[in-house]
Amino acid sequence: MIVADRTGTRSPWMTAGAVLCLVTLVFNAVRDVLFVETRDVEVWLGFEVHGRAALATAPLHWAIFALGAWAFWRERPWAVTALAAYLFYVALSHLIWSEASPNGRGWVVGLIQAAAFSLPGIVLLRLRARGRPDARVPEPA
Questions:
Q1: Residue 92: C-alpha distances to residues 39, 57, 80, 125 (Å)
Q2: Residue 75 Ramachandran class (φ > 0 left, ψ -120 to 50 alpha, else beta)
Q3: What pLDDT digit, counting tens, does each position of 63-91 carry?
Q4: Which of 12, 22, 53, 108 could bond 49 through an S-S bridge, CB–CB 3.0 to 4.6 Å?
Q5: What is the CA radius of gyration of the chain?
């Protein structure tokens, strides 16, 4: 399954989710602290915030990824659903940003980006609803 099975075996998918969240957290924190050009911009629901607002809200992004890393590492059953919801949020944000930002590339590119982020979210929700087993190799009998 996507979460640990009853035998106590750790799901590789949950471990992968924890590692992905942790790597993203470290990448964003380092980028926000060390590089001036990225430190002064944060994007929330597709809208850019700059200056002090960006500096004040950057730790919220870090907290989201820290919570995700913790949830996946602890194999919380809601982690997969939360990841799917976050992917849909990112998809909507890309759609809005593509049109609202002077750096955006328009609705067509925004729709392509939104589809690219939504597809994994849909797959995760379908797998979660089916309780589908993960890709573990069965032990020989």
A1: 23, 19, 19, 17
A2: left
A3: 999 999 999 999 998 999 999 999 999 99
A4: 53
A5: 17
